[in-house]
Design brief:
The protein has about 375 residues and is α/β, with parallel strands linked by helices. Helices cover about 30% and strands about 20% of the residues. The protein contains eleven helices and 13 strands. An eight-stranded mixed beta sheet has the order 6-7-5-8-4-9-10-13, sandwiched between helices. It has a three-stranded mixed beta sheet with strand order 1-2-3, covered by helices on one side. A hairpin with a 2-residue loop joins β1 (about 35-40) and β2. α3 crosses α11 and α5 runs parallel beside α6. The longest helix has 18 residues, at about 330-350. The chain starts with 8 loop residues before the first helix and ends in an 18-residue tail after the last helix.
């Protein structure tokens, strides 16, 4: 480095040390996001490389970092680049990430009817809106709802090679569901082994195209099917969806413990139907109880990623095939979903890197 001796790497990094990123919740130096520092006279250039998608934040990050560096005596010019680099992170022992998929995020609940599928759909759409390449797998064999939620009802996947299926696409998200392969009114009268085999085929025989995240809408419950899926899917982390009421929380706790049992980290909790605001008078009422998600998060030392209201528009938009993030992008609910998505991506980014690709398979043969 050449130029003004007062402008050193240590001086620049010290100026950034107190600049806390709202998503990382630490400064860019501590987070190892400050890269490629170049100093030439009074000119300073620096790249901020985020481990999570945050396209909507890039402008604000660039401005905040530039302001900090420009305040250093002797600095005459500042150039800041902001980018995202998403890598594959570790999964359960003995499993490797899927080809074409860097990270799998399971969205689960202990029971049905808590808004799990709507959460999975909006989470995937929010990640995509921030610049990530995202897939969405509907693993709820008995009640696939994502084709309807994403406006893909009646669609069928194509096969280019006769061996695998091409995912369908909705709002920039790659999608696969058993609902694309059966009649809408056909009951799935299948036993557990048939269900797990079908889901394994959906996961592995879909040609996912270079995904940063594959969001899996898991079946509700904590039985043999769910446990088997959790053991066979190479999952980076899980999100548990619940409502504040005690009955739902009891089942959500079982779901959380199931993932812990198979070594899958819990990325956090999402609390649906946390409060209802009357559309006529504005009265706020906690119909399903208050603070249950927060108490459960504290009990298990996990993060409460966000709380969503009991809002008729969330249901209406999902029924219409345009979930909240794309159907009402400026709404308060969409903002909450996007914040949840960023927190999930940050939590994934904090996981250890996947190192399996660095070690070759060793084959011993008799000669």
């Amino acid at each position: 480095m050449t130029g003004n001796p007062a402008i050193t790497a240590d001086v620049v990094l010290a100026a950034l040390a107190g600049l806390i990123d709202p998503d990382l919740q630490k400064d860019y130096v501590a987070a190892k996001a400050a890269k490629n520092l170049r100093i030439d006279g009074g000119s300073v250039a620096l790249d901020i490389e985020l481990p999570f998608p945050a396209q909507s934040r890039h402008g604000a990050i660039r401005a905040a970092v530039r302001e900090r560096i420009a305040a250093i005596p002797g600095v005459s010019d500042v150039e800041i680049g902001v980018s995202t680099k998403i890598i594959a992170h570790t999964v359960q022992h003995g499993l490797k990430p899927l080809p074409g998929v860097k990270n799998i995020v399971a969205v689960a609940s202990g029971k049905g009817g808590v808004g799990k599928s709507a959460t999975a759909a909006n989470l995937a759409l929010a990640l995509a809106s921030e610049g990530a390449r995202v897939g969405l797998l509907d693993a709820d064999i008995y009640g696939p709802s994502l084709p309807q939620m994403l406006g893909l009802a009646g669609s069928q996947p194509e096969s280019v090679d006769g061996q695998s299926m091409e995912p369908l696409e909705a709002f920039g998200v790659q999608v696969m569901s058993i609902g694309f392969l059966i009649e809408p009114d056909a009951p799935m009268v299948w036993r557990g082994p048939m269900v797990t085999q079908a889901l394994d085929q959906l996961l592995r025989q879909t040609r996912w195209h270079e995904l940063d995240y594959l969001v899996v809408d898991m079946p509700p419950g904590t039985g043999d099917i769910q446990l088997t899926l959790a053991q066979k899917f190479p999952v980076t982390g899980a999100v548990i969806v619940t409502t504040p009421q005690d009955i739902a929380l009891l089942d959500a706790r079982k779901g959380l413990k199931m993932f812990e049992k198979v070594g899958i980290p819990i990325l956090g909790l999402v609390e649906n139907m946390s409060i209802h605001i009357c559309s006529n008078c504005g009265h706020a009422e906690h119909i399903f109880g208050e603070g249950g998600g927060g108490r459960m998060a504290a009990d298990f030392d996990v993060e409460l990623l966000g709380s969503l209201p009991l809002d008729r528009s969330i249901r209406e938009l999902a029924d219409a095939g345009r979930p909240t993030v794309v159907g009402a992008p400026d709404s308060k609910a969409a903002a909450i979903y996007c914040e949840i998505a960023r927190r999930v991506a940050v939590k994934v980014g904090e996981r250890a890197k996947d190192m399996s690709s660095r070690f070759p398979n060793i084959v011993v043969q008799n000669t």
